[in-house]
Backbone:
């Protein structure tokens, strides 16, 4: 059976193609595929800690930080649903995501790091017959550029159907995190806009304005109730249809985003601490 990701193996987004390869001097300690140690997910969670902050991104809050993980963040990525990950340790690549978790933006917690983050990849094609449940350490990676959204053409031509089906199931799964439900609601059923009068800096909040504000608050409560009900009824077919919808549609078509992964080096000391 042909690997559905194989025809995409040699392509990378432009941002990654523009990056210079990592200096080979930084990769002299990388073991050969035959000698590279692999790790189970349970082992990594037990040793490095962390909770899944967003798909494939594991983050340890300040109260439970591990001295083994200075960045407090690590990536555990699956090559079976990520066709543009680095092809080998030390290479650059990109992951895909549908929405971003912004739940910590209003907290004092700085959130996950995006610099020098350890990346682990399971089902690695670099190791012949890479095990689907064992992870390879690929190096330390930074997101050197803000994410870009894929356009419709790349969604169709560069994202395999199996990957879109994965996201359709993931986004509609029971028990998805609240931040993800909020993101889906914002995309498919955005809140109503306030169209009433707005007081100036020197004016008082008179009865007419208060009436409009109170009415808008009521509209928001009603919208929230209905939108949450609709989000609870989303099916994978709805997401797949949204992937096909035009950008100018209402709601607009749903697109994935690139998260660029620039390799900064391969940390032998970190790897040795794992093995």
Residues:
């Amino acid at each position: 059976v042909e690997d559905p990701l194989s025809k995409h193996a040699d392509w990378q987004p432009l941002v990654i193609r523009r990056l210079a390869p990592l200096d080979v001097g930084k990769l002299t300690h990388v073991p050969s595929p035959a000698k590279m140690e692999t790790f189970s997910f349970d082992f990594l969670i037990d040793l490095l800690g962390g909770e899944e902050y967003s798909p494939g991104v594991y983050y340890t809050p300040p109260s439970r930080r591990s001295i083994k993980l200075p960045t407090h963040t690590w990536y555990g990525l699956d090559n079976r649903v990520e066709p543009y990950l680095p092809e080998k340790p030390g290479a650059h690549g990109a992951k895909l995501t549908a929405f971003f978790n912004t739940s910590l933006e209003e907290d004092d917690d700085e959130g996950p790091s995006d610099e020098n983050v350890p990346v682990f990849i399971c089902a690695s094609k670099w190791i012949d017959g890479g095990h689907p449940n064992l992870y390879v350490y690929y190096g330390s990676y930074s997101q050197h550029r803000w994410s870009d959204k894929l356009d419709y053409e790349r969604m169709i031509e560069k994202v395999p159907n199996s990957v879109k089906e994965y996201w359709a199931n993931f986004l509609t799964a029971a028990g998805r995190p609240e931040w993800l439900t909020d993101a889906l609601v914002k995309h498919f059923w955005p809140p109503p806009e306030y169209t009433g009068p707005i007081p100036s800096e020197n004016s008082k909040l008179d009865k007419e304005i208060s009436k409009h504000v109170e009415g808008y608050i009521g509209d928001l409560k009603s919208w929230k109730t209905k939108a949450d009900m609709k989000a609870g009824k989303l099916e994978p077919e709805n997401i797949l249809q949204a992937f096909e919808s035009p950008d100018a549609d209402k709601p607009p078509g749903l697109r994935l985003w690139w998260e660029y992964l620039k390799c900064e080096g391969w940390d032998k000391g970190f790897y040795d601490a794992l093995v």
User: Anything to note?
Assistant: The longest strand covers residues 134-142. The longest helix spans residues 207-232. The chain has two domains: 6-150+257-274, 173-234. Residues 6-150+257-274 form one domain.
